[in-house]
Amino acid sequence: MTTQTSGDLTADRRAEYARHYAQANDFAAAADLIEQALDLAPGHLPFLSLQGEWLAKAGRTAEAAAVWAQMLRLDAQDRFGAQLKLASIGLTETPDAPPPAYVESLFDDFAPRFDTSLVEKLDYHAPLRLADAIVAALGDAKAIRHAVDLGCGTGLMGERLRGRASFLEGIDLSAGMLKRARGKGIYDRLEKGDVTSPAFAETEPGRADLAVAADVYIYLGDLAAAFGLAAQLLETNGLYAFTVEAHDGPEDYAVRPSLRYAHSQAYLGRALADAGFETVRLDRIFLRKDGAANIEGFLVVARKAGSVTVLPEAIAAEVEETAGTKPGEGATRH
Predict the structure, then answer these.
(1) Domains in the chain, start-ordered, CATH in brackets?
(2) How many CB atoms lie within 10 A of CB 309?
(3) Residue 131's pLDDT band (boundaries 50, 70, 90)?
(4) How many CB atoms lie within 10 A of CB 203?
(5) Is 95 left (phi over 0), alpha (psi -120 to 50) or beta?
(6) Going by C-beta distance under 8 Å and a sequence separation of 6 or more, which residues neighbour residue 323?
């Protein structure tokens, strides 16, 4: 995240010197120097964010945690993801999702270099792999009537869909990303919004025969709302394709040190079924690089089942109570 000026020129200059140490991988020196900047600009969140990051990289985890806790006290919106950072080292429970302000700020800042970073530096091929999987799932029906690109970003996935979709729609939380996507001229409609918000589907439910989310859910833990939105957008038998990072632990999902979420295969299958989807394929694939590491994930293609209606939890409980059963006992899906 770009460091905003603190309003103190000397503090800003010391922060710039600290960055040079960090770029040389001397994180201890960088953390000590940013402390001097903070003496001149106390509580400046961008400086605190850098301090926490560099302390952690220097192995001074307890000090980093104290900085992140301070940031949470100073910023209720948590625009720098302090809670995620604490969760990544096991000091708080894993949140179901990061704060929207953090995700929006992260990608607004990343938008100008997003395509170059992912494709050229991280060997990112998720859109291509998803497009191939979608074509295979379509079978003889190669054309797509209405596709929705969930978390469309700058349009890397949309570029793969444009040639097959009669109508292509995109939604993203970041205005910066949407500006880049709009400049490519590949979408028929773009909207700023959250990929878990029912409002996006309520205007015209069942309008799409394809919903895609390429590396979007790595910024969500609990996927129930996201899967529910996709089900609401899709017509019966509509296709739903997405990628996530793979989690091999016993938990449904976990936050990695990268501050991205990873999900277990068992959780994905269960959550899709709960949302009214039938899994067509679930493949373990190479997603992208992260430094020297290869990041593995799951590529999933599912189909909206025709005979399943998923009731919101509150309504389901009311129906069960009316039928004379306690919530969770004898629940029926129609």
Answers:
(1) 9-93 (1.25.40.10), 114-314 (3.40.50.150)
(2) 9
(3) very high
(4) 8
(5) beta
(6) 330
8 Å CB contact between 251 and 264: yes
| Residue 204 and residue 235 in contact, taking contact as beta carbons nearer than 8 Å | no
CA 264 to each of CA 101, 196, 245, 254, 296: distance values in angstroms, whole numbers, following the listed order: 26, 20, 9, 9, 12
Q: How many residues does the chain have?
A: 334
Interhelix angle 45-57/61-74, nearest 10 degrees: 160
The answer to whether 152 and 187 are in contact (CB under 8 A) is yes
Round to the nearest angstrom and report the end-to-end CA distance of the chain: 47
- What confidence tens digit (pLDDT) does each residue in 45-77 have? 999 999 999 999 999 999 999 999 999 999 988
Q: Which residues contact 121 (CB under 8 A, 6 or more apart)?
A: 289
